[in-house]
Structures are given as structure tokens and as C-alpha cells.
Write a structure and sequence with these properties.
The structure is a homodimer of 193-residue chains. The first copy, chain A, is mainly α and 193 residues long. Helices cover 71% and strands 0% of the residues of chain A. The first copy, chain A, contains ten helices and no strands. Chain A starts with 6 loop residues before the first helix and ends with a helix. At the A-B interface, helix 7, helix 8, helix 9 and helix 10 of A face helix 8, helix 9, helix 10 and helix 11 of B. Chain A binds a DNA duplex (30 and 30 nucleotides) through helix 1 and helix 3.
Amino acid sequence: MDKKIDRRALRTRRALSQALLSLIVEKGYDAVSVQDIIDRADIGRSTFYAHYTGKEDLLRSGFAALREELRQAKLAHRASPERAGEPLSFSLAMFEHGARYVDQYRAAANGRGGAIMEAEIRRALSELVREELRGLDEAAVSREFVVQFVVSAFLTAFDWWFARKPKLAPAEVDAMFRRLVLGGIGPLAAKPR
Amino acid sequence: MDKKIDRRALRTRRALSQALLSLIVEKGYDAVSVQDIIDRADIGRSTFYAHYTGKEDLLRSGFAALREELRQAKLAHRASPERAGEPLSFSLAMFEHGARYVDQYRAAANGRGGAIMEAEIRRALSELVREELRGLDEAAVSREFVVQFVVSAFLTAFDWWFARKPKLAPAEVDAMFRRLVLGGIGPLAAKPR
DNA sequence: ATGATAATGAACGCGATGTTCGACATCTTC
DNA sequence: GAAGATGTCGAACATCGCGTTCATTATCAT
């Protein structure tokens, strides 16, 4: 019975989230002021601060949705028959997901602005990967290190994709990503002669 | 004969750079205001803006030094007999370098603040790695992708090291880093039964 | 010594932040 | 449907950091 969330409050929060998101896509996170947000959302200034401590807080709150979506995308993919026991089963789904939300991710990737966004996305991905890598041999390399390694590689692939080869199909980027993460650089460099 | 740099101007720039650096270590980049900088450097406000467009500009200018130091560390290591043709010859030297400048790197790694710093460090490392990977088989995976992959992995190792296992010796972190980057995850995950 | 260049510091305009408060709207509950 | 709680409004305010201006003074190069 904790559903005591006032409809008005919901309206307000939704409007603010939405306003921020669209503004980020337009101008990038840093360039967005609180004033911009409340103007677009048509919400009073004091109301804004009654809900959030600032734009960073508002931004963060929005990522709950992303995390949920990721989790579902992963489950949906899990259910599919192929790639049953394969490691990193999430990756292709993630690249496809990314292809659909190019704009948002672009804005997030734009280094300058979104340190927070990057951190938040990283967090969401880390959860996924950590779960995925549960049955890992801990002896050689710390598990958390491996998790971060995978997430970084994924984000790198993502950035590179959008910045350099946006024409590539998700499956192609995914193939490169998997090749590097699973097999490392060794096989590539072993071409000295 | 272009050595027309006035001593006064040099003094000023040096004082500002130094002030910023020490302040970053103390409070983190974001928390540092222009006022803080000029107070510590004991430099007039207008003078500051006569030299730099803002604190970001000042910060950037400081990275020329870092890039030089990296380049030299790499050359010095190149000269050493062991590891002649080994790939990623720079990594151990870099980790050792990092161990010496813990404070600065800590401040840089602190996600929130230093998007710029991270970008700048990334740039410096990318140059190194790109050079290192010159003779790479381009067919399978785009070279620039590989470069970014390696740099990300390195930075990840760095962050993880400081945040989680600061007691580890540089050589140990380096071993983990090399293992993952060269061999990938495959070998680790291949322990299902 | 002198003309050029750099540094000073106080003052100002600007834009963004976060808070406060009284009036009004909308929900919940009995 | 009346009452009290909760949410919203909007204007006003204090505060902060930024970047610029300008007349004055110090230091440089020659």
C-alpha cells in the first residue's frame, strides 16, 4: 500500500524528466540549465527544488528506467534458444538497443558533458556483466577487474561505432567486440613476419 | 629567435599551473574556482584572463608536460634489452609511472570532475598505443578500434588498481592487464565444468 | 633612459543557483 | 461535500562564479 504517490507529483516528475532528456539531446547536458528544464516542463522553480536537489539529481533518477530496460532486454535474449551457454550473451542485444537510441547515446557519449551519464550507464552495464560473469575463475584475475574490463570494452566499441563507423550493422560491431574481448589482441599482433 | 617569452609571463603561467595542480589534488577539479587559483598563485584576476580563457584552458596547457614525460618514459623503456619485440612494451613503465604520481592520477580518475582530464590522458595514451600498434593486421578489426580498446583497458586497470587494490605492485597489475588485453576473457570463462 | 609589455585590483554586468513565502489548486478521507 | 493535507505557483531575494574593463603601476628589453 505504499502507492501513495500523488498524481500531481507524478505529472511533475514525468514532465521534468522528459524535458531534461529532450534538452540533453538538443544541447548536451552541460548546456542545460535548471531554468531551461522548468521552462520546457512548464513547472515552477520552487516545485522543481521540492522534488530534486538539482539537475544532477533529476538526471540520475532517470536512469532507473534505463536499468530496467536493460534488464528486460537481457532476459528476453536469454530466453532465445541460440547462444544458450555462450558468455557475454547480452552484447548483441545491447548494440541493437543502442542503434535504436542513437541520439540519447550520442549525447551521453559526448565526453565533455556527461561524466555523470557515463558513470550511470557504466553502473547499469556493470550489474549486467557482473551477473553474467558469476561463474568465473577468480584465481587468475580479480572478478571485478574483469567486469570493468568488459564494460569498458563495450563502451569503447559503442563510442567508436558511433563516432567512426555509424554505417556498420549492430551484428558487425558485435563481432569485433566479441573477438577482442574474448580473444584479446594476441591473435592480431601475431603477424610480425 | 622566437624566445621572446617575457620572464614575467613565464612566472605567471608557471604559478598558475602549479596552483591549479595543487588545488586539484586537494579538492578535485570541479570544486576549484578561478578565484581559488589566482588566490593561491597570487596573481591578479585580469592577468589570469590575459593568459587563459578559463580554467579549462589552463588545465589543458598543463598536459603538454605529461605527454612529453610519457614519450620519454617510453623511449627509455624501448632502449632496455629485454622485451625487445614484445607488444605493448609501454605498459609496465606506465604503471610504474602511475605509482609515482598517485595523487594526481587519483584526482584525475575521480569521475565526476575530470572529464577533461580523462580525455586528455586518453589522448596522450592513444598516441603511444597507436604508434606501438603500427604493424597491426588491419583486416579483422579496425586499427583505431584496437587502439581505443587497449587504452580503455589500460585506464580501467589503472582505476581498478587505485580504487580496489592499491597494495598491488605495478608488475602485478601489469601482468593482469597484459593477460586480459593479449588473451582476452576466453581462457578464463572456459572453465564451465 | 625610454618605450613597450605585463601585472594589478577594484568595479561592473551577467547568468545560474537554491531558498523563501503567501496564495491557490488538487488530492484524500471521513 | 467539507476539511485538512499535500502539491504547485511565481515572484523576489541573496549568493556565487564568470569574464571584462580600465586607469595605474611595475618590470622588461635595448
